[in-house]
Structures are given as C-alpha cells and as structure tokens.
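Comment thread on ticket #2218

A.B. wrote:
> Attaching the input chain for the structure job we discussed in standup.
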Amino acid sequence: MPKLYNEETMRALFGGYRIGTVDDLNAEGYLRIVRTRRRQLGQMTMALDTVAAKRRIPDSRYQISQKIDGEFSMMIYQYGEVCLLNPGKTLRAGAPFMAEAADLLKKSGVKKALIGGEFYVQRDPELRVKDGKATRVHDIVRIGRKPENQEQLDQLAFAAFNIWDWDGADLSMDYTASIAKLTEVFGGGARVHPVKTVIGENAKAVLKQYDEWVTGEGHEGVVARSETAGVFKVKPRHTLDLAVIGFTESTDERAGMLHDMLLAIVRKDGTYQIVSRVGGGFSDEQRVSILKKLTPLVADSEFHEVNSSRVAYQMIEPGLVIEIECLDLVAMTSRGNPIDKMVLEWNAEDKRWEGLRRLPLCSIISPQFIRFRDDKTANKDDARLAQLTDIVDIPDVDRVAEEIILPESKIIKRAVALKTLRGAVMVRKIVLWKTNKSEASKDFPAYVIQLTDFSPNRKDPLQYDMRVSSSEAQLLGYFEEWEKKYFVGGWKVQPE
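C.D. wrote:
> Ran it. Output below, let me know if you need it in another format.
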C-alpha cells in the first residue's frame, strides 16, 4: 500500500510538521472533493445576523454547533495515516493533532475516511479574556504556516463537523448520525474533537445558544442544522469605514435618486482598492440628498466599473468616508482562489483616477449603509486596510501595486499598408502581440491582435478593431483573414 503523501517533497517545519500542496498526495481527486464540499456547504447555508435570525429561522428541531474561526479543511485518513487538505491546495501533515486523530481512527476500525472540519488554534484562556474571542483565524494563519516552538505546534487543532466518507458511506446529509459517529470516535480527544453541538427544539434555542457562545464566550457564531428546515449560520455584523469613490443614479421613476455607491479601502501605500458597493440602508430622502452631495464631485477616470445593472459608476474625487455594516467578509472563492480587486491611484495634479492592477482582497457580504463619517477623510488611517485583515486573512496584503513590474509584450507579426486618395494618405496596420502578462495579472489576455484604420477624409479619422485570445493560432487566423479583407483594392503593403 503506497503512502498517503510524499513527505520528502513537502516543506519541513518545526517538530516534523510539514506543509506542501495537493501535488504531494499519492492519489488524485481529493482537491475536487474538498472544493465541491465547500461549495455545497455555502450553497445550502443561509447566513443571518441576530435580527434576521429572529424573523427567518423557522421552528424545528436543530443540531446547534459552535462556529470555529479557523480554516475550512478536509481530514484525509487512510490505513493509519492522516493529512489535511484545504480548497486552496495546501496540504498539511505531521502535526501532533494528526497523530492523535490517526490513533483514534485506527481504534475505531475504519480503514478510509474523509472528514470535514475547521483547522484552528486552541487559544490560551487568558487571551480569550483579553480580546473576548475564543479563537481567531489570524492565529491559524500565523501559527499554522510556521509554528516557532513546541507550544505553538501543540496548539494546532481540528474541530470535525461532518463525515463525507466512512469506508465508502457518505454521512453528510444525515447530520445526526455524522455528529454521533464523530463524538464516538473523537469525543475524548484533546486536539482533535467534534464541534461542540447541542440539540435545540425550536428557533429560540438557536438564539439562546448564540447568546451563550457568541455574546458570552466570544465564538465566531453558531450553525443550526435541521433535516426539514435547512442550515442556518448566525453571526454578528461587522462595521467598516470605507472611502466613497463613485456612484450611480437610479433610472426611470426613481431618477434623481442614488442607486448605489462604489467603495474602497486605502492601502498602506496610499492607493485605493475597490472592495464593495453599497445600495441598501438608505431612505428615499437620503438617496436624493446624497446624489446632490456627490454629483459636484464627479472626476475623470481612465478606469471604468459598472454595477449589477450594468450602469457605469461616475467616479468622484476622494475624500468622503462612510460607515457600513456587513454580515461577513470572504477572502477566497469556493475553489480556494484569492478574490482579486482593482487597485486605483488618484492623480491629484490631473484630478483623475488611474488603474494600476488587481490584487487579492475580499468580498463583503450584505453591506448596508449606516452614515457618513464627517469626522474622517479618505486616507490610510481613517479607511485603513487593517479593518479587513482584522477579520479575514488576505493573501499578499503588503504588496505595493506601483512596485509590480510586468513583463514587456512581444510583437509576433505586423503588417502596414498605405493608400492615397484625393491627395490624402490613408494607413491600415495589423499588429499581433503576446502580452507576456497573463500569468502575472488577470487583467491581461495572453494574445492580442489589433487593426488600426486611419483615413483623414472620414468624419471619424481613426478607427480600431481588436480581438484577444489565449490561442496564438486563433489570432494568426484572424491576421490572415484581415490581410485578405483590408489590404486589397489599391492598398500597398509596406516592406518591413
């Protein structure tokens, strides 16, 4: 029987703990499973705050669990070996809690298992008293990536919440049976254990556990599962101060009212990164007054963004800050990829916005307008990035957008033709180039072909046609087609 993973290709850290990627597994298909499970969980779970929970959670019998502020992961067990895989392709092995899990699973008699749970750090009780939180995702980001001593290594833990495979049996939709099996196997565990779960007979029981675990003990939230009513996640709302950089106006009978605002955080280098839009939380009177407030601030921009109705934002001079509240922040897609958002720079001399590039940030769930912060302005302190990183882990958050040097493009093929008509010289040019930037930034295609058509006798002298593709062969086909179409009827191709 081959080993579950190849430890020689993984990066060795303190005390035998290792980190690698899905490529270090000696079996295929696991990444698809963990990504699918995360996506399914997101689709079937309704996220609510306490106000909405009182209104929307129906009476039913619930399994109510603590929500752990950790890293969604899949524990893979095979014939005495254990490792952890997350949707972002990170593979972990060799931690003490994994040895504990392997021993308990082996004693249970199971040969193969896939278990969903949260990889997290068991915090010192003194820290809980200090900041009111039982565990924080920042702890697992810091310690999980590189524990510095045995004490930190021993803090790594796993809270199991579902069984996706148990010797071929899928228990995920029978949550009662799944929790019962996890309790049977991991109930006496120290670093590996089932999520704390109680039975609630109605919706009030869910809110009661929220008050005990979240309000009282500082946990991230509660998850309530019912076989008939569905799955609900109840969490506190967050408040954020963000810079207003654009707006759209409503249409039709609501013309003259604000539709929504485009919001940004200010990075440490003073650039602005688009983070969200907010269209809820306004009264009709506010929509009228805010539109009047923003309209005189309209500024030029080389970057254009549209809202969900495909209406382009009017960009404004930076300065205004608003306070919003939201239910959650998400820094990864269901596939474990970063969520890239555009970084802009305000050119104060020309009074215009200039696009730099996309960098990882996050998505804001259910944003709602609260008020304008007249005591704050759009700067790196009042609309600071740390508001987001205090809640979620954002990859490469300290990168400076202006310092990123992208590779130069390379021209693959070029052709120019001239024609004289009524004493005026007309020019047609076809250029095909490889950007060499597609791997470094999602804002660039791999290949581009452009036709430039200049005729001084036309009302619109300069015209363009452009195609982009990931295939060089496809655009070479366009090149040949355009030559046959546009370089005929008196057009003379110029030598290179």
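A.B. wrote:
> Thanks. Noting for the ticket: The longest helix spans residues 30-44.
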